[in-house]
Amino acid sequence: MSDSKITSVETMRKAVPEFDGTNWKDFAFSVRTTLKGNGCWKPVEPG
């Protein structure tokens, strides 16, 4: 994956492996890092 920010949902979907029920750790890591890298992952205060 390049260092440029992802600009479309389709491109983001290609960056994350398909979840098949057995690859949760890899899937979750890919989703988190892809979203964080594109400024889409922000902490939420509980409550």
Task: Write a short abstract of this structure.
This protein is mostly helical and 47 residues long.
How does this structure look, described?
The chain has helices at residues 9-15, 24-37. It is flat and about 30 Å long. By secondary structure, it is mostly helical.
Mean pLDDT: 81
Main sheet properties: none
* Strand count: 0
Basic shape: flat
Helix content: 40-55%
Q: Pick out the low-confidence regions.
A: none
Oligomer: single chain
- Please write the string of helix (H) and strand (E) elements: HH
Radius of gyration: 12 Å
* Number of separate helices: 2
Measured by DSSP, the beta-strand proportion falls in: under 5%
Pairing-aware structural class of the strands and helices?
mainly alpha
- Spatial gap, N to C terminus: 36 Å
Task: Give me the secondary-structure topology.
Elements: H1 9-15, H2 24-37
